[in-house]
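Whiteboard transcription, Tuesday session. T.W. wrote the C-alpha cells on the left side:
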C-alpha cells in the first residue's frame, strides 16, 4: 500500500516537473518571437554600425525655434524647445557632419541633434539641452557611430540597440529554454530509471 502511494506521488511529481519544463520552453519561444519582431528589425535596419571618434566643431542652441517632435504630427502636447545642433569632425573621413543622439532622433526631427522626451515640459527640456551643450563643449572628443556604406552622411552618439544589448535580450530566453529542456531530460531519465527498476 505504501509502495503504491510512493509511486503515485512520484508520478505526480514527474508530471508537474514535465509541465514546468514544457511551460519554460513555451515561454522562451514566445520571448524569442517577441524579440524577433520588435528589437531585431530595429537592429538590422540601423546603418550606423561602425564606431569611430568624433571631435566637436561647434554646438549651437537656436532659441525661439519651433522644432516639432515629428513632422506632420498633430499632437497637442508637443511644445517648442531650443534646437541643439552639434557639428563634429568625423575622424574616419575628415568630414564635417551633424551629430544626432540616436537613430530615432533623426527620424523625429532631422533639424536638431537632441529631441526632448514627450514627458518633459519646456523648462526641463531647456535645462537639459543647455546641460548637453555644455558637456559637448567640455568633452571635445568622444566615440560615435557612422554609416560605412555612405547612405547616411551624419553620425549618431549611441545606438538604440547595440550588439551587447541584443545579446543581453537573447540571454534570458536562452537560459529559460535551456532550463526547461534540462528539466524535461531529467524527468525522462527518471522515468526510464523507474521502468528499469520496476522490471528488475
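and on the right, the sequence the group agreed on:
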Amino acid at each position: 500500500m505504501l509502495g503504491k502511494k510512493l509511486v503515485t506521488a512520484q508520478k505526480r511529481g514527474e508530471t508537474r516537473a514535465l509541465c514546468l519544463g514544457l511551460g519554460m520552453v513555451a515561454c522562451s519561444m514566445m520571448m524569442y518571437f517577441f524579440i524577433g519582431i520588435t528589437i531585431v528589425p530595429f537592429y538590422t535596419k540601423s546603418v550606423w554600425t561602425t564606431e569611430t571618434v568624433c571631435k566637436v566643431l561647434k554646438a549651437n542652441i537656436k532659441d525661439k525655434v519651433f522644432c516639432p517632435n515629428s513632422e506632420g504630427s498633430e499632437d497637442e502636447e508637443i511644445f517648442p524647445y531650443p534646437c541643439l545642433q552639434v557639428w563634429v569632425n568625423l575622424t574616419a573621413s575628415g568630414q564635417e557632419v551633424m551629430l544626432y543622439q540616436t537613430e530615432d532622433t533623426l527620424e523625429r526631427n532631422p533639424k536638431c541633434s537632441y529631441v526632448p522626451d514627450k514627458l518633459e515640459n519646456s523648462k526641463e527640456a531647456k535645462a537639459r539641452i543647455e546641460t548637453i551643450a555644455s558637456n559637448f563643449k567640455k568633452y571635445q572628443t568622444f566615440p560615435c557611430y557612422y554609416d560605412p556604406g555612405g547612405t547616411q552622411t551624419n553620425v549618431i552618439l549611441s545606438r538604440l540597440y547595440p550588439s551587447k544589448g541584443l545579446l543581453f535580450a537573447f540571454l534570458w530566453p536562452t537560459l529559460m529554454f535551456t532550463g526547461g529542456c534540462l528539466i524535461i531530460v531529467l524527468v525522462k531519465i527518471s522515468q526510464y530509471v523507474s521502468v528499469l527498476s520496476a522490471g528488475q
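Someone added at the bottom: Confidence is low (pLDDT under 50) at residues 69-77.
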